[in-house]
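Fold this sequence, please.
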Amino acid sequence: MVCWLFVGSSIFSAAFALLGGQGVVERWVLSLDMTPTQFLILAQVIIFLLGWPLEWTETSSSSCRSSSRCWPHFNIDPLFFGILVALNLQTAFLSPPVAMAAFYLKGVSPPHVTLNQIFVGMLPFMGIQCSRWCCSTCFRRRVVVARRSVQVAGPPPPCDRARRQRVSRRQHAGQ
């Protein structure tokens, strides 16, 4: 059953891209005259609904391609949107009716563990994921500021690297 979901989601994603689904979605979203927050909520609801039956690669490729054309219009940071998508897809994979992760767990669990027990065990984690998504959305500036602080940290300038190599050689020569 799970393999057929992979096949179906791949076919859906390819057909959506080939038939120009991205342009249709872009025109539809821009015609709704939404605020950036409304756009984020609409995009995340669509991604959540697509995350039930589709594999994560197809969900992220079809939904992110479609919504990426609208990001400049709504002034959405792509990394921020990607963080929300990752949190959203993790929740979608755990939630019924399809819950791909539940079937993976059922395949490796002992025979006495039922699918209902797996679903009950997933509920606290789904609550945590939903609260993380809400916090990320509410504190959007914190997420973006954290991104900028990570981007600043990078490889040292070439002059510092050369100086460190000389110091390292001296230390090795002294040993």
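The chain has a mean pLDDT of 78. DSSP finds ten helices and no strands in the chain.
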